[in-house]
Amino acid sequence: MDSIAKLLTSRDFLIAVLAAVSVAAIVFTFGAQLIVRSDLKDRIKRVAVEREKLRAEEMARLRGPQEGRGTARREDTRNYMKRVVERFSLQKAFVDENTIDSLARAGYRGQGPLTTFLFMRFATPIGVAAFALLYFLVLAPGDRPVYLNLAYGIGCGIVASYLPILLLRNQTQKRQQSIRRAWPDCLDLMLLCVEAGMSVEHAFKRVSKEIGQQSPQLAEELTLTTAELAFLEDRSRAYDNLGKRTGLDGVKSVMTALIQADRYGTSVGQALRVMAEEGREQRMMEAEKKAASLPPKLTVPLILFFLPVLFIVIISPALIKVFSSGVHM
After folding, report:
1. How far is CA 102 from CA 96, 97, 182, 215, 243, in A?
2. Which of the residue ranges 72-76, 83-87, 107-111, 112-116 would you say has the lowest mean pLDDT?
3. 304 secondary structure, DSSP code
4. Which of 177, 183, 182, 191 has its CA nearest to residue 251?
5. Residue 170 contacts residue 242 (beta carbons within 8 Å)
6. For 67, what's the count of Cα atoms within 13 Å in the CB-facing half-sphere?
7. How many other C-beta atoms lie within 10 A of the C-beta of residue 201?
8. Crossing angle for the helix pair 163-195 and 216-231, to the nearest 10 degrees
9. Sign of the CA dihedral 269, 270, 276, 279?
10. CA angle 82, 101, 119 (to 5 degrees)
11. 19: which of 1, 50, 78, 152 is 20 to 30 A away, CA to CA?
């Protein structure tokens, strides 16, 4: 026992043990670095494979409705519209730099909706003017002069020329209203996904699936943005396209923050957190604004419907008493 104790407490033995521990620590440190690097390479490979898979899925989803949607009758109708548009050069007459963006904000993308819109702008005033002339000149001429009936028919055609624009504007407002209502919740979900460790592409894909029940329009835009993030070289173009397609200031501000975060390397989660807080504050301000506008809106119904009934209820007992006392007299 004394020899073992002397061995354990000897100077040479302690030096040898410390040297062995140091060598083991050095070997473990370099080995762990190699293992982490190999794991990192595997993770990068898995991310690349998943990104290619995501790109293929989104491209197939975007192409699927376009490929399986048409029938022979629709193709004939579209070809007829296309021939009319090309024959009369309607694209030069009606299309400007904002037409395609306006159609995209209403949810219509591609050459087919553009051709249909141009054809409707050309055919609607002609059809309405022809029907109005038939009505005023043949069905109900009346005692009016012929030139006055012609003026009425042409006036109806001129008014009808704005009908496609009004319908497009109405569709755009409905779509923007749906996106505006669901956008704060979308930011909260996207913030949760990013802080959980997801990439921006996976966050957009996940949120597009979750937000679809609340706003299918926003889910469609997020899905298209996911596909653009997958195959566009510049990510800022995908963010900028989302802001242009929606046409909402709140969405544009968030996309600008994401572009700056991607360009300067700042935290995406921090940018989303700030924008989510601003979105919640803006939604609260809009709710307070609507609540503050209720008293002026209720003034007219109160005067027309509530006050007369209230006066009748208050005055009726007195009137009944007065008339009953007069009858007895």
Report:
1. 10, 10, 21, 20, 13
2. 72-76
3. I
4. 183
5. no
6. 6
7. 22
8. 70
9. negative
10. 25
11. 1
Distance CA 326, CA 322 (A): 6
- According to DSSP H, which parts of the chain are helical? 2-9, 11-68, 72-87, 90-94, 99-105, 111-134, 146-160, 163-195, 200-210, 216-231, 235-246, 249-264, 268-292, 294-301, 307-328
Give the lowest-confidence range in 143-147, 180-184, 250-254.
143-147
Crossing angle of helices 146-160 and 111-134, rounded to 10°: 160
Q: pLDDT band for position 170 (50/70/90)?
A: very high
- Residue type for position 95: V
> For the chain, what's the residue count?
329
DSSP per-residue string spanning 63-108: HHHHHHS--HHHHHHHHHHHHHHHHTTHHHHH--TTHHHHHHHTT-
Angle (CA) 139 142 147, round 5°: 95
Task: Identify the CA nearest to 104 among candidates 225, 191, 17, 209.
Answer: 225
- Looking at this protein, which amino acid is placed at residue 91? Q
| Tokens coding 216 | 């299918």
Average pLDDT of the segment spanning 281-290: 85
Q: Which two tokens stand for residue 180?
A: 């505006």
Supply the pLDDT for residue 37.
46
Confidence of residue 163 (pLDDT cuts 50, 70, 90): very high
- Beta-carbon count within 10 A of 141 CB: 12
Assigned token pair, 237: 């173009």
Contacts 24+ apart (CB under 8 A), 192-198: 194/268, 194/269, 194/272, 195/269
Note the pLDDT of residue 168. Answer: 92
C-alpha distances (whole Å) from 75 to each of 68, 100, 189, 209 are 12, 22, 41, 32
Q: How many CB atoms lie within 10 A of CB 31?
A: 10
Kindly state the tokens that stand for 48. Answer: 């690349």
